[in-house]
Design goal:
Elements lengths: L1 E6 L6 E2 L3 E5 L17 E2 L12 E4 L10 E5 L9 E2 L9 E7 L1 E3 L4 E3 L29 E3 L16 E6 L4 E5 L14 E8 L6 E8 L1
Parallel strand pairs: 11-15
Antiparallel strand pairs: 1-5, 1-8, 2-7, 3-4, 3-6, 9-10, 12-13, 12-14, 14-15
Length: 211
């Protein structure tokens, strides 16, 4: 599943709260309540999206069969949603566009059939051999208010993770990170991480911890 998203303005708040739920039947809502569904594809907890430009996002899930519809939104309660800056009254708007869905097997990536009469552009089929290498989805905010686990999306086994504080001191290292690092293990502040998946390029970035 690939999609593009952007936040509408940065004057208020940014959030990590959105996902995609696939269903066999259409869904109708008449209120503002939280959707009572578990999204098969979701933005990892703590991955707050600040960018006002379009960014590509992706994810995968195992279909049950017969899915024909999907909805996009925040499937978490307010107290489980990360807002930056933290606030019980926070809200923000995100725009989504250019959704594409592929069927993946063990040898070929094949795009599902799309009606050519639809007035929209879609990515061409990818027939490369092997499973797709989905990009890592790395949260940039960790907080005891809602998301307390640093959960990296599309994580591969035997991925090495190192974390340094603002003084350059090593504060955490794992040669096989299993999404176990929590906010309780780190003091509030900014940290710098190195993530090295097997046979893939190292990724570096910053993580802000709020307590």
């Amino acid at each position: 599943m690939k999609r593009a998203t952007r936040v509408y303005g940065t004057e208020n708040w940014a959030s990590d709260g959105f996902g995609i739920y696939f269903s066999k039947d259409s869904i109708v809502s008449t209120g503002w309540e939280t959707p009572p569904y578990a999204p098969q594809v979701k933005n990892p907890d703590g991955n707050v999206i600040y960018d006002t430009s379009w960014i590509a996002m992706s994810g995968s899930f195992i279909a049950e069969g017969g899915e024909r519809y999907f909805i996009v939104g925040n499937f978490k309660d307010a107290d489980q949603t990360t807002f930056d800056p933290p606030s019980p009254y926070a809200s923000t708007y995100y725009f989504f566009d250019d959704f594409s869905v592929w069927y993946c097997d063990s040898s070929t990536i094949t795009e599902i059939e799309i009606d050519p009469l639809l007035p929209h552009q879609h990515l061409p089929p990818d027939t490369a051999d092997g499973n797709p290498e989905l990009p890592l989805i790395i949260p940039n905010l960790l907080s005891v208010y809602g998301n307390s686990i640093w959960q990296i999306g599309n994580l591969q086994p035997n991925t090495e993770v190192t974390m340094y504080n603002a003084l350059g001191q090593l504060v955490y290292r794992s040669k096989n990170y299993m999404n176990e690092l929590t906010a309780a293990q780190l003091a509030a502040g900014m940290y710098f991480y190195d993530i090295t998946p097997p046979q893939r390029e190292e990724q570096k970035g910053k993580l802000v911890v709020i307590r």
